[in-house]
Specification:
By secondary structure, this protein is an alpha/beta fold. Helix content is about 25%, strand content about 25%.
């Protein structure tokens, strides 16, 4: 059995709801999808028992009817575990993972600024990557986002 298969077997024996939801598309790549409520226990187990000590990044996806976020974890031996969660587009709430990865704060700020996610437990801090004067409620990585045209209207009135 490969190391990836060992990890799948370990995860499904610990979390029965993952049965049939873990995909290994090629060596050193493992993908799974779960509900946001199950993220913390799976993440904790992956970090503490399966030796995934590195958070590579968090990817945000606008899938039209929902927003999804993929947490990319890595082992020292090069295996990547990609954990996907999806939340309602109208109420995109997720919990911070900074207790496991303090460096996740910067990625979570991106999810707030660019997708409008509400990250519960994210410490107060500066906006990132948008500027402090960026208009509230404008999330440029959402597919339905359109730039505010007020500045364009003012310019056309002066022409």
């Amino acid at each position: 059995m490969s190391k990836e298969e060992d990890i799948r077997a370990d995860l499904t024996s610990k979390f029965s709801y993952l049965e049939g939801k873990i995909i290994i598309p090629r060596p050193k790549r493992i993908f799974l999808e779960l509900s946001p409520d199950n993220l913390a226990p799976v993440l904790s187990y992956a970090v503490e028992k399966l030796e995934f000590p590195h958070l590579c990044t968090i990817t945000g996806l606008d899938e039209q009817d929902k927003l999804s976020f993929i947490y990319h974890l890595a082992q020292d031996r090069g295996i990547l575990l990609n954990i996907k969660i999806s939340v309602s587009r109208d109420n995109p709430v997720l919990k911070t993972i900074t207790p496991y990865f303090p460096g996740a704060e910067i990625y979570e700020r991106e999810l707030v600024d660019l997708f409008g996610a509400k990250v519960v437990g994210l410490p107060e801090g500066n906006r990132y990557p948008l500027t402090d004067d960026w208009p509230a409620g404008q999330f440029p990585l959402r597919k339905d986002w359109k730039p505010d045209t007020q500045a364009d209207k003012k310019e056309s009135n002066h022409a």
